[in-house]
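Hey, quick one: can you model this chain's 3D structure?
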Amino acid sequence: MPHPQKYNKKYDKLTDEEKELLEISKNSITDFVEQSSSVSDVHYATRNAHAKTYAVAKGEFLIDKNVPEELQQFFDKEKYDLIIRFSNAHLKINKGKKDIPAYGFAVKIKDESGDLIANYPLVNFPLFPINSVSTFLKLFTSVNRFFVKKWSSFSLMMQISKVIPSTFTGSFLKNIFKLWRKRNDFILSFDYHSVGAYRLGENMIKIKLSPKSVDKNFNKKLKTKDALSNYLKTNDFNADVLIQICYDLKYQPINKLNVEWKHSPYLKIGEVKIEKNSLLDPNACDNELLSFNPFESKPFFQPVGKIQKLRDEAYKISLQTRRKINKLLKYK
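Sure thing. Here's the predicted structure for all 332 residues.
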């Protein structure tokens, strides 16, 4: 077995231009969140991505007994407590029956005393269409401005056009086709992915969560939120937690997010379990204000990569603005 590539801060380093664009983007996040109640026609400030909460639940992360010896140091307990948020990726809360099939499965891992170990915001599409930090920040800013009616749709389309070329990879097209075929499937029947890389000590990994024995047609005629609630009230949910390790940057690139990792087998490290009737109130203020910023994780579990690095400031400014507004509104 080859030796894993070791983490290096160089993978995260932003240029001065990228840092300037990040500051502009942070301002657009603040503007969006401040006006998000009007954008989504709700009585509270929302996130500026994954705004719609389908459900929040308690769960457990059960460590596999056959975890490779070199990884056992990171999993010194048999199980860990989880808080899980299910969401839709859209910035605006759609109140109609049909949502785009872009789902989030955000996981908060805690120890027995309730202290945070790691946050992992997972999604049901394994790739990201943008490798350039500058291109992403300009697009993200344009999207925020579009929703708060400060920029035109023409400006937004111009930024989108710059992204399209990076979607023409074999990996990306294959996964687009796969998502299209599953577009009407039940939310818990999808695999969920970390998209970018994370640290596991000095190693770098990608994460995949693969559900077991979930009927893709469950409550197909219901809205996603209602179907998910029905399932979690009447069924246990189980999923394998798998990782890939970065051994060779040629085949497992850190800052090229539009291609799948190759030549790195999946290793099972455990299972996620949600027992039936473990739902929490998704509308409760504490649950709506949950943050899944992966940079709040322990140092040896934090994200790796330039696009990932942007999440830290984006999550912080979004949460700070939401908390300020929602506490003023006495949101319950």
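One thing worth noting: The chain has one domain: 9-328.
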